[in-house]
Every structure is written in C-alpha cells, then in structure tokens.
C-alpha cells in the first residue's frame, strides 16, 4: 500500500490549496483496508476521495488521512437491475459505463469530478438528480472498523448531506436501475455541454462553495445579483462564469478562501438578511 508522509495537500485537492498532510494511506484492496483497522477507529481519521469538494487549512492536517481513490476500481452489472461499483471509481467512469450499456439515470454524474465514495458522502447531484436516488445498498466501514452492508433506509439523507455519525467510509455500492425507463442517447452530451458552457470546469476550484438556499434560487444567482461577482481576496476570486465557484489563480491560500467565504456570506446577509451555508468541506 502506498503511504505518503508530510506531503502537500495541494496535490490532493482540485482547488490546490492547503498545508501538508502528516500521513496519507492509499489502500488498494480489502487486505489493505484490514491493515488500517486501528486507523479507521481513530476519531480524527478522515477519508478522502478525489479532493474535489474538500479543502485543508494552510497549517495542514495533523491526523491520519485515508485516500480511497486507488482502491481497486470495479464496475459490473448484477442481474437485471443493479450496478455494483467500488468507492474509488470515478463518477465519470460510472456514467460512461451505464451509458455504454444503455442504462438510463446515471448521465448527470458524468461531469462530477469526484469518486463514487465522495459523492455518496456529499449526496452529489446535478440537473435535478442526486446519487442517493440510485442507491439500493452500500458497504461501509463503521466507526468500529467493521465492514457492513447497509440499505438506503439506514441513512438520513438530504440535500448534499448524509448522516455519517456511525460510519467512517463508503467502500462500495449497489445502484439500482430501471430498464423500462427511456434511455436517451443524447442526454449525457447535453448535460456535458450545459456544464462546460456554464461552469469553469478547467480551472482550480472545489465546485460549488455554497449550498443553494432553496430550490427556487441558486447561490450563484444571489452572489451575482448582489454585485459580488468581481470579488477577490488574495489569490482566490469569484468565477465570472459561475459565481458559486471560487477559483485559485495559483497563489491562493486557504486563508484567502475562508476570508472570501466570510466576506460573501456577510454581504449576502447584509443585503438580503439571508444566511448561506457552505457546501465545501474545510478541515
Ligand atoms: C469542476 C467541479 C464540478 C463539480 N460539480 C458538481 C456537481 O455538479 N454536483 C455536485 O454535487 N458536486 C460537484 N462538485 C463537487 C465534488 O465533485 C463532489 O462533491 C464529489 O462528489 C466529491 O467527491 P470526491 O471523491 O472528490 O470527495 P472529496 O472531495 O475527496 O471528499 C468530500 C467529502 O467526502 C468525504 N469522503 C470522501 N470519500 C469518502 C468515502 N469513500 N467515504 C466516506 N466519506 C468520504 C470527505 O471526507 C469529505 O468530507 C464539483 C467539483 C468540481 C471541482
């Protein structure tokens, strides 16, 4: 198993900020997961995927990190209504796999640059769908370091949030699909075109910084309407293409990001008496 010590976390987050990690373990199979049993039970141990919705402070992370993106990638169709996927598989790969097998419902996942594990943790979604809409069962490592299979109803799931108080990591998942639903061969490309025309997908960011306050108005629209689209602090600035994306120009720090988040939240509150909540996870 690969282990990295005292390594810059800029390497493991898509916004490329943060100090050093004390140690990162990269398990590749169930044997490696077993070797990490005692680490999984530590309260401050954090599991990460592709780092596309997580940011670390400039002082770094001094506890154990376990990155699941090297976990053996596996995708298969089980029977007539399930897809099995391991947590380290990328959302794009899952979406393409479903597409290549003419299975509808997974198209929205294509442009989400995370692992399936991270997406389950965040209840990632786009274009009116969320990943947990598709889940039947998951295998998790619980807080006692045991591998257990749980069904969707064992979780409290809401917008970009899953209650993980009893569990530490998603290891794999059985998605359900419905062949009777119409398969639209154009949908995956339509979503990708929409995404690339409205979001800064090729710049250093963590995706959406804030949750949308409700289903009627997006955080991006509020930031834009509040005239905050030109705001910048240090090396982090609000994207003009999508105001809920904050971009690192290459010199940004976590302090810049936190200050920008604070400043935008304050301005929104002052102008609209509205509190907006972080989607990005900062440690
Ligand atoms: C350009 C861009 C576009 C994006 N578009 C979208 C979008 O359309 N919709 C959307 O919802 N998000 C979007 N995101 C955000 C992000 O891609 C998703 O939240 C993604 O699901 C995170 O997966 P990850 O593997 O990168 O997780 P990470 O960022 O590594 O981790 C995110 C959280 O999940 C936890 N975690 C990670 N892996 C596991 C695991 N196996 N078990 C338990 N917990 C785990 C981490 O501790 C952390 O709290 C976008 C991000 C970018 C940069």
Can you walk me through this structure?
- By secondary structure, the chain is α+β, with helices and mostly antiparallel strands.
- It has three domains: 2-67, Uridine Diphospho-n-acetylenolpyruvylglucosamine Reductase, domain 2 (2-Layer Sandwich); 75-176, Uridine Diphospho-n-acetylenolpyruvylglucosamine Reductase, domain 3; 202-282, UDP-N-acetylenolpyruvoylglucosamine reductase, C-terminal domain (Uridine Diphospho-n-acetylenolpyruvylglucosamine Reductase, domain 1).
- It has helices at 30-35, 37-40, 91-100, 116-122, 187-198, 219-225, 254-272; strands spanning 2-8, 20-26, 46-48, 54-55, 61-67, 75-78, 82-86, 125-126, 129-130, 135-142, 147-151, 157-158, 161-162, 167-176, 232-233, 236-238, 246-248, 281-282.
- The chain starts with a strand and ends with a strand.
- Bound molecules: flavin-adenine dinucleotide.
- Flavin-adenine dinucleotide binds next to strand 3, helix 4, strand 8 and strand 14.
Summarize, please.
This protein is of the alpha+beta class.
The description of the largest β-sheet is: 5 strands, antiparallel
β-strand percent reads 25-35%
CATH 2nd-level architecture of the largest domain:
2-Layer Sandwich
Stretches where pLDDT falls below 50 for ≥5 residues?
A: none
Principal-axes geometry comes out as globular
> What's the Cα radius of gyration?
19 Å
Strand neighbour order, sheet with most strands: 6-7-14-10-11
Number of helices: 7
Average pLDDT, all residues: 96
CATH class of the largest domain: Alpha Beta
Q: Return the structural class.
A: alpha+beta
Q: Would you list the SSEs in sequence order as H and E?
A: EEHHEEEEEHHEEEEEEEHHEEEHE
Helix content: 10-25%
CATH topology (fold) name of the largest domain: Uridine Diphospho-n-acetylenolpyruvylglucosamine Reductase, domain 3
Ends apart, CA distance between termini: 25 Å
Total separate domains: 3
How many extended strands? 18
